[in-house]
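Reading group handout, session on sequence-to-structure problems. Before we discuss, look at one worked example. The prompt was deliberately terse, the way you'd type it at a terminal:

> structure Cell division protein FtsQ

The input record follows.
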Amino acid sequence: MASSYNRKSASSGSRRASSPSRARGASRTPAPRSSSVRPASSSGYRVIPGGQLPKRRNAEYGRVQPRPQARPPLSSVRVGDLDRAERNARAQRTYRRHLVRLSIAGALLLALVAGGAALYASDVFSIESVQVSGVEHLTATEMTELAAVPADTTLLRVDTGAIRDRLLKDAWVECVEVRRVFPHTLELAVTERTVAAVVEVPTENAESTQDWAIASDGMWLMPIPDKDSEAGKSISPKVYEDAESVLRIAEVPYGTNPAVGAYCTDASVSNALSIVAGMTTDLAGQVRAVAATETESTTLTLESGVEIVFGSAENIRDKERVCLKIMEEHPDVVYINVRVVDSPTWRSPS
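And the output record:
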């Protein structure tokens, strides 16, 4: 009995003896918890409920360091979105450059307009001389007077169209170009009509004829006065040179009324001009005169004296070919009729 009591007392004493040690914080290994509890990290942090880490204290200064901020979550961007953004940025830069250029251009334009207006109103490019070129049948003085350039005008303000219209009123002027030659010269480049024939036009009393110069386009150029007359002395010598070298259209019907600067309306004269202008062979150079009494009886007189009844200005080349062939086969021929080109007739001295 004594032994049993001693054991109980001993065990009770041992339990009591162990109590103070627990109270003083004696270490005792706790029973392990479930596996859901995360172990302490190797860095010395202790896992606490809620998953938050405790604030670290600065060992040197004893201050609590702020917890590092978490990185923002990653987001994905498509390549097409990047290209579109780059294109938009590039377009904006291009637009801004265009705006700058347009602003500069507008400023320059305004400056030019203002300067041009001031220059237009000034007398900087006043016309001091008028030069005429291309005239033979007219004189430079006549063309200058006909141009009638205002005395107070300048090369910038001069009305070139009005000057051109005034010059074209002269029958000799076929076309003209008005040029500004800076700083003080106005140039008139004239192209004259040439004399195609001299027409012997019957006078009103039909007792004589008056020579008229006519151009190849049928415009009456001028009456040709006698060379030794007072009117003839004021005319360019070129007019008489042409009158002597071109063919003459004679036997014009009475009632033909030419006028300077007007086109010929007489059918027989127009037919004669068309024949001469349409000839392309050596026969053209041999024609000395044309009798234009009627269209169908229009007759050419060659330098050799041969008379050719040519008729209307149709099938001109075929008629020329027939005439040349007859003249080659019959050197003594004096008369040829080719009004009907398929049935020509001719006559030689008997």
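Points for discussion. First: The chain is about 35% helix and 20% strand. Second: The two ends are 204 Å apart (CA to CA).
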